[in-house]
Amino acid sequence: MNTGGGLLCVWNNKNFQVHLKIAERGFIMLEGVWLADMQRVVVANIYAPCDTKSKRLLWQMLYSRKNQSQVKCWCLVGDFNCVRHPAERIGSNHYISDTNLIAEFNDWLAAMEVDDIPCVGKPFTWVRPNGSCNSKLDRLLVSDEWLSKWPDSSQFNLERNYSDHCPIILNSKHIDWGPKPFKVYDAWLSNKEYHKVVRDCWSKNQPRGWGGYALKCKLQNLKQRLKIWSRDNFGDLGNKVKQIQQKLNDLEN
């Protein structure tokens, strides 16, 4: 991986037992067992090149790998650098070349026997830095066998913050993410009162009990004190950040 892009696959051995790893130019393929259901699966993480010739070569390699595999439960995920329909791209001037490539892309997906799953969230997953073009380049595609095993599978396109691509998540059921983490804003650190507020709160609150419990109570007290201090000095920072992000997302959409 580098500043020009790359691929990284990370998994939990307690959930997914990998039997085979194949890394080629443009994709990493993992074959293994999803332990919760004892289901053999293949997941291919894809980063397709931009030029058409290299893209076709990638398609051929993946098609060959699928034909050689005994596993029928497949999932392709990543940046395909191609759209399936003209409506999935706005701002492009290459209509004829796009149309021809779209047809080839869809023919390849049909040969791979994979298809899109229901999508929730933003309609486009990539935006040109100057905002002149938006495309749905990132997607999840699964086989019929995958859908038979996990019929509620869906793709979530999350909000884009630092990258020009939106993060995407495969979800097969409702996920409880637990309590929201406490955030420390950079604006706090630049305020002269911040460190004094932290020191005063930390020294004044001395709960009794074993060390772990006392630390938990001190952190909870500090969290509440900082929330009040932040609201009094900066207003609702969280809401301000959300409003700015929403304005950016509205401009992209």
Write a brief caption for the model:
The protein is an alpha+beta fold. It has helices at residues 52-68, 95-112, 144-149, 186-189, 194-204, 211-234, 237-252; strands at residues 16-24, 27-34, 39-47, 74-79, 89-90, 114-116, 119-121, 126-127, 134-135, 138-143, 154-157, 168-171.
- The structural domain count equals 2
Query: Portion of residues in helices?
Result: 25-40%
What shape does the CA trace take?
globular
Oligomer: single chain
- Let me know the average pLDDT: 87
Q: Report the biggest beta sheet as strand number plus sense, adding barrel if it closes.
A: 6 strands, mixed
What is the correct CATH architecture of the largest domain?
4-Layer Sandwich
**Broad CATH class of the largest domain:** Alpha Beta
Question: Could you characterize what this model shows?
Answer:
With 253 residues, the protein is an alpha+beta fold. The chain has two domains: 16-171, Deoxyribonuclease I, Chain A (4-Layer Sandwich), CATH 3.60.10; 186-252, no CATH class. It contains seven helices and twelve strands. Strands 1-2-3-4-10-6 form a six-stranded mixed β-sheet. The protein has a three-stranded antiparallel β-sheet with strand order 5-9-8, with no helix packed on it. A three-stranded mixed β-sheet has the order 7-11-12, with no helix packed on it. The model has no long low-confidence stretch (mean pLDDT 87). This is Endonuclease/exonuclease/phosphatase domain-containing protein. InterPro entries: Endo/exonu/phosph_ase_sf (IPR036691).
